Structures are given as C-alpha cells and as structure tokens.
C-alpha cells in the first residue's frame, strides 16, 4: 500500500489519536522512516512546496521538520541512485554471540558463557553459507556493493575466527566494496589482534557503541565495560587507521534523565566520531527488560 494512502486509512480509524498528534513536530510520522515517504514524492519530481503540502495534509508534519527531511533526502538521493542499480547487492553477516545479553536486547544473540562453545561450529557453518551464496551471486552476475558485519558482537569471535570469515567473504564476493562495516559494539571485546585483521582486509567503517557514558547505567543494562574502555577503544581504532568510526547511544535508558543523555552525547562528541547513531529505548517482547521491568527505575 502507498505510504500516504496508509496514513489516510490510519487516520480514518484513529481520528482522535491523530488529532492529538497533529500539534507534534512530526505529526503522525512516529515509528516510521519519514524519508521513504518523501523519496516517493521526489521520484514523481515534485517540487518543495507541492511535496510539503501533500505530506502536511496527510501526516501533519510541521514546516520545520519537513525542511529537515528535505535536506536529508537531497543528500541521500545521489547515494541511493548509485546503490539502487539492479546488479548491486549488500551482504549482511550476523554473529549471534555477545559477552553478555543486554537488558533491552531482543536479537537472536547469546552470551559467550551460555553458548560460546558453539563458536567454532557456527564459524564452519557460516563459511559454507558464504561460499554457496558467493557462487550463486557470481553466477547471476551480481556485484557486492557493501558488506555489514553485525550481530550480536562480531568481535566476540577471536581474531583468527574473524580472519577466516573475512577471507571467505573476499573470495566469495570479489571486487571493491563501497563500504565494509564491522560492529565492535562492546569495546571490551576489541583487541589489537582484531584491529590488525580488520585493517589488513579493508574494513573502512567500525562501530564502537557506548549506549551511555554512565557507569551505573552500563551496570544496570548488563554491559561489562566502562566509559574508560570506550575511550581506549576509540584511540585504538584511530591508531589502526580505520577511516570511519560510528558510535551508538540510546536515549531513554532506565534511570537516565535528559541531563545524563546530554552528558553522554557531549562525551561522545569530544571523541569526534564520523557517525553518531541515536536509538530510542523501547520495550521489546523478547528482551529481559520486558520480563523484569518492575525491577528498574
């Protein structure tokens, strides 16, 4: 269904709630990716004013937020045009292991103490899948555009296991990749050996994710690192020469207020990452928080 048509249908069934949201900056564009809607209008070659009038009529977006959305989409369009070519594809590798399971996590990921013994078996199965997928994409004449190594925490694997997987990726998906991202979300897992492997095989974007820079919150959400570990990891990434550093923060973690979030953001800004990703804390059914939320502030 067309996204704007979806909003019209939603409005018909939820008129009262939508009217309440009408004075909000994003209107009804909550829990969605608003840029997708504007890109559809830009594909129809709509000018600024026409696109705003249509989106405002359907979603009640404010002029200020629409102006921001327009600027973002104008920056995105050349990139999307490049990566949307039919012969290009992106590869995602998921590693289902972490040092611990975070309070809010709903991903199919397991702590090393629980299932770490399966790392070698997982690696061998993954190598087979990479080889088979690579053969199929080459047969179809497809070309890899980006590779994203997520999880879980890929650096929960040791450097030798990580190197095996990256070598398999390079064999299966030859050519130059526009972006090669690896999540090293837990700074306590990132070793000099990891960084040597990542630099050697062309990783050009690395994520080190504090989520917060407050130790009490880190302990509360089940992460076994400190703010000092974050700083040390960032310095190591810079020394390794990896071009782009991303850092994640979560807004609204249990027990945190606006001042604490601003302090975390200031500390992360001082580290000068190329990217900062902000997430909003939410309750997920598969998370520990969903079962234990009464125990947290």
Task: Please give the structural blueprint.
Layout: H1 3-13, H2 15-21, H3 34-43, H4 48-59, H5 63-83, E1 88-95, E2 97-98, E3 110-111, H6 112-115, H7 119-139, E4 143-151, H8 159-172, E5 179-183, H9 192-200, E6 205-207, H10 215-221, H11 227-240, E7 244-251, H12 258-270, E8 275-280, H13 288-292
Parallel strand pairs: 1-4, 2-3, 4-5, 5-6, 6-7, 7-8
Helix pairs in contact: 1-2, 3-5, 7-8, 8-9
User: How many β-strands, per DSSP?
Assistant: 8
For the record, the CATH architecture of the largest domain stands as Alpha-Beta Barrel
| Helix amount | 40-55%
CA radius of gyration: 22 Å
Strand order of the largest sheet: 1-4-5-6-7-8
Termini separation = 40 Å
CATH superfamily of the largest domain: Aldolase class I
| CATH C-level label of the largest domain | Alpha Beta
């Amino acid at each position: 269904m067309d996204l704007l048509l979806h909003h019209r249908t939603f409005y018909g069934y939820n008129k009262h709630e939508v009217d309440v949201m009408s004075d909000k900056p994003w209107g009804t564009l909550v829990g969605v990716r608003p840029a997708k809607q504007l890109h559809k209008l830009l594909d129809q070659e709509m000018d600024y004013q026409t696109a705003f009038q249509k989106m405002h009529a359907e979603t009640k977006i404010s002029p200020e937020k629409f102006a921001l959305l327009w600027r973002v989409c104008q920056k995105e369009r050349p990139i999307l045009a490049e990566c949307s070519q039919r012969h290009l594809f992106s590869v995602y590798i998921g590693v289902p292991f972490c040092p611990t399971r975070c309070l809010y996590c709903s991903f199919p990921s397991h702590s090393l103490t629980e299932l770490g013994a399966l790392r070698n078996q997982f690696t061998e199965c993954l190598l087979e899948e990479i080889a088979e997928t690579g053969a199929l994409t080459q047969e179809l004449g497809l070309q890899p555009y980006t590779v994203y190594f997520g999880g879980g925490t890929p650096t929960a694997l040791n450097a030798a296991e990580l190197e095996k997987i990256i070598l398999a990726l390079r064999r299966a998906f030859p050519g130059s990749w526009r972006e090669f991202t690896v999540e090293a979300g837990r700074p306590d897992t990132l070793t000099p050996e990891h960084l040597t492997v990542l630099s050697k095989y062309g990783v050009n974007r690395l994520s080190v994710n504090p989520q917060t820079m407050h130790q009490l919150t880190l302990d509360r959400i089940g992460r076994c690192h400190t703010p000092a570990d974050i700083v040390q990891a960032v310095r190591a990434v810079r020394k390794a020469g990896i071009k782009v550093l991303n850092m994640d923060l979560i807004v609204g973690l249990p027990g945190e207020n606006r001042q604490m979030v601003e302090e975390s953001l200031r500390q992360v800004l001082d580290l000068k990452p190329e990217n900062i990703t902000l997430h909003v804390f939410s309750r997920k059914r598969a998370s520990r928080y969903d079962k234990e939320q009464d125990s947290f502030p």
